[in-house]
Design goal:
479 residues, Helicase, Ruva Protein, domain 3, 4 domains, 4-stranded mixed beta sheet, 20 helices, globular, binds adenosine-5'-diphosphate, binds magnesium ion
């Protein structure tokens, strides 16, 4: 047997690392089909089956790939793609895309939802010579526009506020504009769309999009290098500042101070500020009150989960953009089954496409059902009262029987009330039914428990942390 060649060996090593960091399904879909082509001067070239495949990797796994490559090949490692061109006259001649591409200063979440900083190509604001206006890279992703941000009841207010702000940045009452929602519902898309539209209408305005994490890291670096005043000057200079995911400012007191200063300056000079957050401002913990009150100055609006029609429209819009046609019944099936998160919805569509293109099968309902097994199972798995009781009791180290018993010991009462609260919140069970599960208590006891938990969450920080932690555990184990 001949020795594996260097690129094969390197790729095999990479695969080992990748395998530990992605789900088996993702590994099978996105990594097994990749073929290593060559390794020259620390540049590994890999072949991928399609442009679409390449884009998916770039969007979802570029951070992981970079980290892995650095680990396996060394700190200067680079990746290039050969893309097999489908349906073209040239047959299957691969073409090459250099990676990382110019636009990779985004932060992409890895499988664990942790953002990975894509270091290399981030424009450093401090090296912009003379701060000439045209030299500020707005860091906007041109892919995210209003045109492809489908309107629905779930985003009506936020969308129209966004358009208003884009037409008259700094000139509306919506300053700051705060957009909030759980993840995957379109905050980042909307934030970029606002920035892109401003750039289009007001060419001379300096627009800057930055994730809160990048902002924090830049500030920390500047403080280390004793040039935080440059940092502040730079940010005070922009006309439109868009900061994504400000919940990451929590507990970062010094960053909050500096942001406060920048915020005030921009606001006073009539500059527009757009913020996004994964929860309403009032629920932000460990953020200074004076900053919170500023967040509330303008308009806060939320994005909620889209209804079936909007989900359908989002899928159709996505297919239209990518020039794909799929049977209506398949699209409906996806829209019907994935109802909580638009990112997942798009992921499902893409998985179906990938599977079809890799196996050269037709996209039909059986294929979609087969592919969706993983998604759908988790999406429709019900959280049961028994399950909630078990997690709450585990958390407090008490036996499950205790919450069903008559005992009125303080810690048991509390666990019982929290379990009732989550049973009401996370299951479809009636109050009566919930009461039955707790040793035959009546519905008013359940109502009282929910009220008590709500009150305590507002007044008792430790209690609230416990409840948040329990909720996390319940959700992690069921989704
Ligand atoms: P968030 O920042 O809230 O986590 P994103 O903005 O990243 O969510 O959205 C997740 C995905 O869903 C993106 O690919 C985005 O383009 C898409 N998306 C969200 N809302 C819409 C919408 N109304 N129309 C079309 N695509 C949407
Ligand atoms: Mg986002």
């Amino acid at each position: 047997m001949s020795e594996p060649r260097p690129h094969e060996q390197a790729w095999a090593e990479c695969l080992k690392v990748i395998k530990d960091n992605v789900t088996p399904q993702s590994f099978k879909t996105w990594f097994e089909p990749i073929r290593p082509v060559r390794l020259e001067s620390k540049v590994l070239t890999i072949q991928v089956p399609s442009q679409f495949f390449f884009e998916w990797l770039e969007e979802h796994y570029v951070g992981l790939l970079q980290k892995t490559l650095k680990k396996v090949i060394g700190p200067t490692a680079k990746l290039e793609y050969n893309v097999v061109v489908e349906n073209s006259n040239q047959g299957n001649t691969p073409y090459t895309v250099n990676q990382p591409s110019g636009n990779s200063s985004r932060q992409v979440p890895n499988e664990m939802g942790m953002p990975i900083q894509l270091g290399a190509s981030i424009k450093n604001p401090f090296i912009i010579p003379g701060l000439k206006k045209m030299n500020v890279d707005s860091q906007l992703n041109p892919k995210y526009t209003f045109d492809n941000f489908v309107e629905g009841e779930c985003n009506k207010l936020a969308r129209s506020a966004g358009v208003a702000v884009a037409q008259k940045p700094g000139g509306t009452a919506f300053n700051p504009l705060m957009i909030f929602s759980p993840c995957g519902l379109g905050k980042t898309h909307l934030a970029h769309a606002i920035g892109n539209m401003i750039k289009q209408i007001h060419r001379s305005k300096v627009v800057l999009y930055v994730s809160a994490e990048k902002f924090i890291n830049q500030y920390i670096d500047s403080a280390k290098n004793h040039n935080s005043s440059d940092f502040v000057n730079f940010y005070q200079y922009v006309d439109v500042l868009i900061i994504d995911d400000v919940q990451f400012f929590a507990k970062k007191e010094r960053t909050q101070d500096i942001f406060f200063q920048i915020f005030n300056h921009l606001h006073q000079s009539g500059k527009q500020i757009v913020l996004t957050c994964d929860r309403p401002p009032k629920d932000l913990k460990d953020v200074d009150e004076r900053l919170l009150s500023r967040f509330k100055w303008g308009l806060s609006c939320d994005l909620t989960t889209p209804d079936f029609e909007t989900r359908l429209a989002i899928l159709e819009n996505k297919m239209y953009q990518d020039g794909i046609t799929i049977d209506r019944e398949v699209v409906e099936y996806l829209a019907h089954n994935i109802d909580s998160n638009i990112r997942e919805l798009e992921g499902a569509l893409i998985s179906v496409l990938a599977q079809a293109s890799l196996t050269r099968k037709q996209i039909d309902l059986p294929l979609a059902k087969q592919m969706m097994k993983n998604f759908v199972k988790s999406a429709s798995r019900e959280i049961s009262i028994d399950y909630i009781q078990k997690l709450v009791c585990d958390f407090y180290g008490i036996p499950v029987e205790a919450v069903k018993s008559k005992t009125r010991k303080r810690e048991i009462v509390q666990a019982r009330q929290i379990a009732m609260f989550f049973s009401k919140d996370l299951t479809k069970a009636s109050l009566k039914n919930i009461g039955m599960h707790f040793g035959g208590r009546d519905h008013s006891t359940v109502i009282h428990a929910c009220q008590t938990v709500n009150d305590l969450m507002d007044t008792d920080k430790k209690f609230r942390q416990d409840v948040d932690e329990i909720e996390k555990r319940i959700k992690i184990n069921t989704v």
